[in-house]
Amino acid sequence: MSTPTRFSSMPYTGPAPTNRKPFVPAGLEAIDKRCDEIQAKIAAPYVTAVPGQDLPTFVVEREKIVDVLRKLKEDTELRFELPIDLFGVDYPRRPEGRFDVVYQLYSIKNNDRVRLVVHTDEDKPVPSSLPVFQGFDWFEREAFDMYGIRFDGHYNLRRILTHEMFQGHALRKDYDPAQRWLLTEKDVAKIVPVVEHHPEDSDFEQVTLNLGPSHPATHGTLRIVVTLDGEKIIGADTEIGYLHRCFEKMAETHTYQQVIPFTDRLNYCSAIINNVGYSLAVEKLLGIEAPPRAQYIRLVLSEFMRIADHLVCIATNVLDMGALTNFWYLYQPREEIYQLVEACCGARLLPTYTRIGGLSVDAPANFLDMAKALVKKLPSHINDAEKLLLRNRIFLERVDGIGAITRESAINHGYTGPCLRATGVPYDVRKAKPYIGYDTYDFDIPVAEGGDTLARTLVRLEEMRQSLRILHQAIERGLPAGPVIVDDPYVALPPKEKVYNEMESLIYHFKLIMHGIQPPVGETYFAVEGGNGELGYHIVSDGSKNPYRVRVRPPCFAVYQAFRKMIVGQTIADAIATLGSLNIIAGELDR
Amino acid sequence: MGVIKIERRKQSFMERLYIPETVKGMFVTLRHLIHNLLNYKDLPIINYPEVKRVYSERFRGRHILTSREDGTTRCVACYMCSTACPAECITIEAGEDDRTREKFPTRYEIDLLRCVYCGYCVDACPEDAIYMTRDYELAIDTRARSVVGLRDLVVPPNMPTEPMGWRPYYGEIRKEGTAGGTGRGQEIRAAAFGDEAAPNPELYKGEARPKSEADSRQGA
């Protein structure tokens, strides 16, 4: 029994200070100039440019969005053909409509981006962009699920991340997150795949088979429903959302710093890349840059994580095809990479290593020695696996030409990362828009032709070698001297010695814990090259300690939506091999 | 911009025959087998319950609350850790005593099932009170036992440094004032522990902790 005291038993909940400064992106003039150029190209009265954003941004009238998208895609000079992202943002009681639907497109030809914004309301449907971009299929379903934004003409506008019995739309600002919705077994969606071409003269009857969500071959909670003719798949559908953890809603109720542990759980095979991407996005919003030592350690660990991600992908992919030996040879170096991560930050899988403005703690004294030993060890493991795979007739015949996607289809579906490079498109965020000093390293982008499972495996094997090349150069350069976090009391916690001994530092420490980081008002997008594609963070700040909206652009999400089309015409066993080579991580897919 | 185009190799006749390549593949596995037999000590396998993995000194395991040299807990119930916690797993209730110090926790609970072991509580602590250990064996048989309170968390002064994990600083730092802990530590410890010998591991578990003033005040 505690005695009543003078002190309140509740923590301080007074009014939190808010930043009122607007966000001014770097290189604003060039962006606004590009904005005018694109405006002149589109030359339409229903498109209004919004100056002062970090990407060329336009507000488009709701009814005309499909026309504008088509114009941007088909214009021979602009060629915005890669759909990057589509999501909603909620601004309740705004006169021009409650919701923003934000589109982002990328031009491979010009290495250029454009952002389109449509204002809409609960009762005003937006025309579906599916006729232009197949890749916005699931993104539109997600915007419908999370905000209740309707898309006119979408063939299958049902919930995607939440379940069938869910009431309301979770990311709306007026949704009460304390509500619980129960889904019982009888309410689970009965999915019947659409069969387009069924041969009339088949000897077999059609069988519909459910695979997952907890099946050892799906490596995650994915549900696939296939209709079979004999052993051949003639129709398939996928359902996701079994690992939905409300990342985006949680981010809105936590401070900027507290979101970092949540980002670990996105792509848990390469968690440091997620940390780095989020930290860089917030740093861009704050207009600060981490010290060189922090950038260096971020880069080295990102590349190690990329290798670990590819090792896991290849290992589990061949494991599904019965090649257990490779699994052991590839998992051992992954384990050693995790040891390095653990030595830096104290956890293997969920590191939470970066902080906004730098790193939580300096790398250990033997960091470079450990990295050197690892880089020396890794090639033999990769070579062994390659020897066992690429001269193995069984493996080759199981992957050659299986699960192929054409270059055009991959671009149209918003593919990025190794899956896009396997179709011959050399798009890599590290080259297209270098961050943390990737432009100072000499490395190549591996591409392959065919877009099949073999091409994806080849690209991943070569990408590990390229990552090793980066690591060799990095180790040669050595650790830069200096601090690992910015010297800014409004962003980084002061050193402990000062907190224990100086009043001023203690106040800064207290302010930062209680009131968090308050970035300027505005929005920004920052992308890094994740283990399986472009991992982007779109952050909207209203100047308070909590992000107004954190949007993750998950590479898996775009990749997996084409899966049901890729496996039609193949056998179940080939579908499993294809799924493994796409490297679908449920943590990132469902967020 | 450097782009490498990976060409597909055509399978040679020998590879198409399959059997010779299988034998070659066997040599790779045989090489690993012989290497492992000769270097048995370097096998990456740990015989777990008998041999335990040694994690780095930054490992983020189960938490502890440290004590001052006079046996009182360093925590001053300032709520910084529970505010910084992204999983909202720390519950604190503050009490107050005019004689010894202003504020202390009468209830300090961590729900180890909610905890994500991110170490933010350690970073947030301004009093050097909460540390993380290298203890990762956290299996429990009921959900209720996942909530650990002051009795499980507080360790006596001069606790063994060996199982320490994530902590607010590494190495020696200059400490003055309350955080460092000054006072009548020596006599109290001598009375409680007998001598200066290595601390009793039983004490570390928090069960056999000598009753301090704070405990008596709590009234159990």
Please state the second-level CATH architecture of the largest domain in chain B. 2-Layer Sandwich
Known CATH architecture of the largest domain in chain A: Orthogonal Bundle
Taking the alpha carbons of the first and last residues of chain B, their distance comes to: 70 Å
Which ranges of chain B are low-confidence, i.e. pLDDT below 50, for 5 or more consecutive residues? 176-220
Strand line-up of the largest beta sheet of chain A: 1-2-5-4-3
Which fold does the CATH topology of the largest domain in chain B refer to? Answer: Alpha-Beta Plaits
Number of domains of chain B: 2
Biggest beta-sheet profile of chain A: 5 strands, mixed
CATH class group of the largest domain in chain B: Alpha Beta
Overall domain count of chain A: 3
Q: What do you see in this structure?
A:
The complex is a heterodimer of chains A (591) and B (220). With 591 residues, chain A is an alpha+beta fold. Chain A has three domains: 28-152, Beta Polymerase, domain 2 (2-Layer Sandwich); 191-245 and 565-586, no CATH class; 247-553, Orthogonal Bundle (Cytochrome-c3 Hydrogenase, chain B), CATH 1.10.645. In chain A, 39% of the residues lie in helices and 15% in strands. Chain A contains 20 helices and 16 strands. Chain A has helices at 28-42, 65-74, 137-147, 247-253, 260-264, 271-286, 292-320, 324-345, 367-390, 393-399, 407-412, 418-421, 429-432, 453-477, 496-501, 503-515, 555-560, 563-566, 572-582, 586-590, and strands at residues 47-50, 57-60, 82-90, 99-107, 112-120, 126-127, 151-152, 206-211, 223-229, 232-239, 354-355, 358-359, 445-448, 522-530, 533-541, 549-553. A five-stranded mixed beta sheet of chain A has the order 1-2-5-4-3. In chain A, strands 8-9-10 form a three-stranded antiparallel beta sheet. A three-stranded antiparallel beta sheet of chain A has the order 14-15-16. The radius of gyration of chain B is 26 Å and the shape is elongated. In chain B, the strands form two sheets. Chain B has a three-stranded antiparallel beta sheet with strand order 3-4-6. A two-stranded antiparallel sheet of chain B has the order 2-5. In chain B, strand 3 (90-97) and strand 4 form a beta hairpin. Chain B is 28% helix and 14% strand. Chain B has two domains: 13-45; 63-218, Alpha-Beta Plaits. Chain B is of the alpha+beta class and 220 residues long. Residues 176-220 of chain B have low confidence and may be disordered. Chain B has helices spanning 13-17, 19-38, 80-84, 120-124, 150-153, 177-180, 185-193, 201-204, 213-218, and strands at residues 3-6, 63-65, 90-97, 101-111, 130-132, 147-148. Chains A and B meet through helix 5, helix 8, helix 9, helix 10 and strand 13 of A and strand 1, helix 2, helix 3, strand 3 and strand 4 of B.
